[in-house]
Structure prediction request, 167 residues.
Amino acid sequence: MPKRLTTTLLLLLFFRMGFAQQLNTYPKVTGYFSILNPVGSWTKNGFSSNFGNVYTIGFPFGVNILKSDHFGVSFEVAPAIRTEKNISKVNTVLFHPGAMFRFRHGFTFIGRMAFETNGRFGITPVFNQIIKKGKVASFFISVPFPVRFGNDQPTSIGTGLQLGVSF
Prediction:
């Protein structure tokens, strides 16, 4: 009888441990969508604000593949709409793959490569913070610093404010 009891307890223990490990298994796939409001950019010609004669807004959405609590990869697509002289149009679509470095308290650094359909390319360091974590979805704020080259334009560095929801 003690052998059966021991065997049963061991099986229950292993079953329970295996079930608990399944709750935190990786990789995990998450998604998000957001609104990006660029603030402005700097070039050798000076600062250009997004709030002057031209206004641009972006709508990034993407998929994250989380490899662990500390690392993941992300693929983002971000169409941008530009309004100038009361005419609005899709100005560019940004393809934005990157590596995610996740830290405590909902902070993430994302190093992204950038490929725009308008001929520009570069990198975008992004600082991301979860501001409200929920069971099904979380709200976040991000500050990107896009650095762009190409298309016969001067090198630029910009910044903006991104608000979104991840699920």
